[in-house]
Amino acid sequence: DTAVSQTPKYLVTQMGNDKSIKCEQNLGHDTMYWYKQDSKKFLKIMFSYNNKELIINETVPNRFSPKSPDKAHLNLHINSLELGDSAVYFCASSPDLGTPNEYNEQFFGPGTRLTVL
Amino acid sequence: QKEVEQDPGPLSVPEGAIVSLNCTYSNSAFQYFMWYRQYSRKGPELLMYTYSSGNKEDGRFTAQVDKSSKYISLFIRDSQPSDSATYLCAMSAGPGGYQKVTFGIGTKLQVIP
Question: Mean pLDDT per segment of 10 residues, for chain B of length 113 residues?
């Protein structure tokens, strides 16, 4: 009964490689996100999608490309991996409550720990 | 200057103590103020949120927002070892989705039995 799942949990790879991280949510949410948490534990938004459409695109190198095949999935593909890409990547999802003054809670996945050697 | 400032700690307290965690921010547009808890090697989970100014209480947890000072706090009463985690404040100009949520760096809390 996992709500937001990510695969793989750990990813160790060489510089220059291309890798993908997959995310799935079974909560029926409309919005999904990718966050990066660096070694100092700073959690920063990268992208968000609403019903498969990109709505937030922070200043992220274009080596990072999100893809949303349907509203339950948001994958992250990274080309030409660099040492500085080493971090924990979190996927999250939230509903669109449409209720004034009510926060649309973001539910986070367990994270994917990426290590670039 | 970061949009959201938070002391990373670590903060170490004895069991039963009252814990005070806080954040300051610079963006006047922030209207939603959240506290997330993150256990080691897990994703963050929402503890509570406040819309605009004021206080909110949920069991042993109380969140306070002072928009005039751009200062938010989380109080934990009767702290337990199970409260040991990193607490991240987070803020947004809107309820989510189309408005990004900006997180603080998180304060690591250890409650000693």
Answer: 89 97 96 96 95 92 96 98 97 87 95 97
How far CA A79 is from CA of A63, A87, A111, B2, in Å, comes to: 5, 15, 19, 29
The answer to whether residue A88 scores a pLDDT higher than 70 is yes
Contact A3, A27 (CB under 8 A): yes
Tell whether omega for the bond before B81 is within 30 degrees of 0, i.e. cis.
Answer: no
How far apart are the CA of A75 and the nearest CA of chain B, in angstroms? 17
Of A25, A27, A92, the C-alpha closest to A56 is A92
Give the residue numbers in B contacting A (CB under 8 Å), as ranges. 8, 32, 34, 41-46, 49, 51-52, 86, 88, 92, 95-98, 100-103, 105-106
Q: A90 at the B interface (CB within 8 A)? A: yes
Is residue A28 packed enough to be buried (19+ CB in 10 Å), middle (13-18) or exposed (0-12)? exposed
How distant is the Cα of B44 from the closest Cα of chain A, in angstroms?
6
Structure tokens at B33: 């103020």
Task: Find the helix or strand (DSSP H, E) in which A20 lies.
Answer: strand A19-25
List of residues 6+ apart from B113 with CB closer than 8 A: B15, B81
**Could you tell me the CA-to-CA distances from B23 to A6, A101, A103, B78, B107 in Å, in that order?**
30, 21, 19, 21, 10
Q: Is the Cβ pair A50, B98 closer than 8 Å?
A: yes
